[in-house]
Amino acid sequence: SSGINAEYGVGYVKVNKISSVTETGRCGPITAAGTIFVDGVLASCFANLSDIRVFGAVVISAQLLGRVGFLPLRIYQKFSKDKTGKLVEFEGLHPYTASLMKIFRPFLKC
């Protein structure tokens, strides 16, 4: 059992490899659950998004907005595997993410 909670998408997964890398720039991991757990802290992968509010009340949370926005990419990745069955990985910014950033730049907090 992976320990993943189906309702919240939170849990533990097996870590296959750990390595140390030092680079300049930003790292923006996107996980299937839209969250990442690092050093005992659960954080959103969509920290640069803002909640959609009407009269001060949150109508759509940034977390839901991010999950909906990345749904097409998650569906694509579910079916895009190489000949060995591994997920095709991208170095750098994924083209889909770059497109979303161009379209929604006015709404981002970065």
Lay out the secondary structure:
Blueprint: E1 35-38, E2 41-44, E3 52-54, E4 57-60, H1 62-69, H2 71-79, H3 95-104
Antiparallel strand pairs: 1-2, 3-4
Question: Which key features would you list for this structure?
Answer:
3 helices; alpha+beta; globular; two-stranded antiparallel ribbon
Task: Describe the overall structure.
This protein is of the alpha+beta class. The chain is about 25% helix and about 15% strand. A two-stranded antiparallel sheet has the order 1-2. A hairpin with a 2-residue loop joins strand 1 and strand 2. The longest helix has 10 residues. The mean pLDDT is about 75.
* First-residue to last-residue Cα separation: 38 Å
Average of pLDDT: 75
Report the principal-axis shape. globular
Could you give the order of the helices and strands?
Answer: EEEEHHH
How many helical elements? 3
Largest sheet report: 2 strands, antiparallel
The poorly predicted ranges are none
